Amino acid sequence: MNSPAALARPVLHLLGSGGFYGAERMLLDHCLSAPGQHQVLFLGAPSELLARFRSAGVRCSNRPGLAAALAFIGERRSQRPLLNSHNFRGLLVAWLAAAIWRLALVSTQHGFTPSSRKQRLYAWLTVQLCRTAVVDQVVCVARSIAALLQAAGVRRSKLAVIPNGLPEAAPGAARERSGTQWRVGYVGRLSAEKGPDLFLDTLIPLCARQPRLTAVMIGDGPQRVALQARIEAAGLGERIALVGFQVDMAGWMNQLDALVISSRTEGTPMILLEAMQQRVPVVAFAVGGIPDVIEHGRSGLLAAPLAVAELAGHLEALLLDPAQAAELSAQARQRQRQHHHLPSLAQHWARVYLDATLETSP
After folding, report:
1. How far apart are CA 141 and CA 266, in angstroms?
2. What is the pLDDT of residues 226-255, one digit of tens each?
3. What percent of the chain has pLDDT over 90?
4. Coil, strand, or helix at residue 246?
5. Residue 177 pLDDT greater than 90, yes or no
6. What would the DSSP string read from start to end of 167-193?
7. Inter-residue contact 196 to 190 (CB < 8 Å)
8. C-beta separation of 69 from 43 below 8 A
9. Mean pLDDT (whole number) for 183-205
10. HSE value, Cβ hemisphere, 13 Å, CA-based, for 310
């Protein structure tokens, strides 16, 4: 097979979404890698998200309710679409549709965030559904996710690991530094699994030691008010800025001396790949799929999960050694291009899709 376009059936992606986050970014790039082949069925999504996909040329619809979503798929069952689910809501609807109309089903697993009873239930149900014969293939964005699913009873033969990737980078402005100030960034949802509180645990004492250090936190979420209060209480309102959700990430990344990923759980974060592509050095906790991407000391610096003091030490060492920062970012850019390049990964997706359709052929 030479390209994803060789698949005869259309691919219909299903997910419930509250905004444009990592999974949505991955899905948009994935759809654009094979124009015309993919369609997205959102199971409840803000109008801004639909507009973003449509403006990029991706066909998409929004059906928040279960009955409406199943009706949408049923109207297209004669086309024999291949269903590709993302997150629990997407899997549940896709599983029902695949069982009713015997459609091919691929479940993409971006990672688990079991920080509440409901999320733990969803994670358990996801595993149970993936174990059934209705799900033909399970694609995990990190080896750690595949290992978890296999340990929970999902057959190894239906598991595939395809990491997230990025398309070719558009030419951008050269990164410039004044040398008088360090600026580090956090990018992600302001919620427990992404660890914005751990980012402040790292930055607040470091700001006390390094007066040149400033930070920007990009994203929104339920912890925003508490985080702002903590920043103000530390007297750092002028040095740590909460700027909310931003669209022009390339422009922001161009301003950073380092990206800090303080997540408690992760798959393969898209922002990590973006930093590598734009030669922004990365300091992160070694959670989820991050150690699959970053080799400590060569393409970034990793700390043990939740080890805030170690994370701060790595960040401080990086900022104090511009030569090391430059070497790490150069190696990271090369690694991203070799292992997380979307045009190359599209070939793996094509194989998965073909295998899934063969499973459901009459």
Report:
1. 10
2. 999 999 999 999 999 999 998 888 889 999
3. 81
4. coil
5. no
6. -PPPP-PPP---SS-EEEEEES-SSGG
7. yes
8. yes
9. 96
10. 12
Q: Is 340:163 a contact under the CB 8 Å cutoff? A: yes
Q: What are phi and psi of 295, to 5 degrees?
A: -100, 115
Residue with tokens 């358990």, as numbered in its chain: 124
With beta carbons less than 8 A apart as the criterion, state whether 259 and 216 touch.
no
Single-letter amino acid, residue 96: L
Angle between helices 22-32 and 342-359 (to 10 degrees): 80
Long-range contacts, stretch 245-250, CB < 8 angstroms, 24+ apart:
245/19, 245/218, 245/219, 245/220, 246/218, 249/187, 249/218, 249/274, 250/170, 250/172, 250/274, 250/278
H-run or E-run covering 17: none
Confidence (pLDDT) at 7 = 66
Going through 169-279 in order, the beta strands assigned E by DSSP cover 182-187, 213-218, 240-244, 258-261
**Integer Cα distance of 332 and 253 in angstroms:** 15
Distance from C-alpha of 173 to C-alpha of 196, rounded to nearest angstrom: 29
Q: Distances from the Cα of 249 to the Cαs of 40, 69, 189, 246, 345, in angstroms?
A: 24, 32, 14, 7, 23
How far is the C-alpha of 98 from the C-alpha of 82, rounded, in Å? 9
Length of the chain: 362
How is 280-346 classified by DSSP, letter by letter? --EEEE--TTHHHH--BTTTBEEE-TT-HHHHHHHHHHHHH-HHHHHHHHHHHHHHHHHHSBHHHHH
**What are the φ/ψ torsions at residue 292 (nearest 5 degrees)?**
-70, -25
Residue 5, pLDDT > 60, answer no
Please, what are the domains in the chain? 4-165+341-359 (3.40.50.2000), 182-339 (3.40.50.2000)
**Is the pLDDT score of 360 beyond 70?**
no
Query: Half-sphere exposure (CA, 13 Å, Cβ side) for 111?
Result: 24
**Region label for 146, one of left (φ > 0), alpha (ψ between -120 and 50) or beta (otherwise):** alpha
Q: Report pLDDT digits (tens) over 203-222.
A: 999 999 999 999 999 999 99
Is residue 87 a contact partner of residue 16, using CB atoms and an 8 Å limit? Answer: yes
